[in-house]
Amino acid sequence: MSDWSTPGDIRNRVRRDWDNGRILAAMLDGEPVFPLRISLKKPNTQALSEHFEAARQWVAELTAATGFQLEWREFNHRQLGRNRIPVAAIVASERDGLALIGKLRDASQFRVLAATLSEIYPALVPWLRKRPLTVLDHVENWPRLMAVLDWIMCHPRSGVYLRQIDVRGVDTKFIERHRGLLGELLDSILPPEVIDTQFTGANGFALRYGFKRKPEQVRIRFLDRKFSIQGLPDIAVTSNEFARMALPVKRVFVTENEINFLSFPDVTDSVMLFGGGYGFDHLARAEWLQSKEIFYWGDIDTHGFTILDQLRSKFPAAHSLLMDRATLLEHQALWGVEDSPTVRELERLQPDELALYDDLRFNRIAPALRLEQERIGFAWVEVALVGAGFR
Asked: Which of 156, 180, 226, 291 is the most buried (most CB within 10 A)?
């Protein structure tokens, strides 16, 4: 009854082979999916006796459906006598299967595109087998995608900005929107020696294929005005310029909150850097930082400690600031909830930091507890700096 196979179930079974790419991949491999035999869930002997009329209607519904043939099996029933019942549906041909799920036009488009792509870029054939549905997802974009591929193949590791790719009808936003797909294609068709594999993902696209990337900016606030440049207390420089600055300061504070960066009290022989969460490669290139006292002020939550751990992978002697249990408990009225806490193991935390991190990730104090750095009272910040001997 409710669990007996219906024509819709048969269509869904064929659609599954479409959705996982098997039907399209078979067009390239020459390994036929069809004829496809689909076993049916059918009434057993008891159900035939107790629900004979329902079973008869079930058979009639299957028989009236199109797009497949039925495989029958005869049986002798003690009460019903000799009868036969469908046990499988046979989708005889690829065309029948595609028509059954309404994909004849899509399959035709795929054939044309796959033939074109494999002829122009023979190295793409394995990718076409693996990602046939992706080919169809970008039907309208292939002329522009191919134009970009051709340009990059003719200008390997060009050393220009993506903005400088001169292809009719293609702008930078198109390339940026399709970096993931273009990366898969380029990895397939470019010689290995022109791909810098240390860079991955959408953010690493430019450097992976030899383009210039927008310079990372380091924002600096001079907490001691005697180090300011031309009297400017707050400046931004590229990471390369920052690496060459070699500021003669004693301490460097790092925060990822702009308001805290702007309002941090003056401290002698010190500067404040405005960070951006995860990722400190741009700071690691400044070797002169290794000789400075570095203090990181982040949120008291699992990601705050994870960022601290990552900073120490570049600067092992870095200290945490205002990321302690006393600060957390003092501001209980301002506790919030962390959206997506992490429970990963961290190897670079100090014992007191690790104890607090464990309490946070295992919800020992409160579920998904978070104290954002900007919620910490300014007077508490002043007292902490005085207590540390900075003021």
From this structure: 156
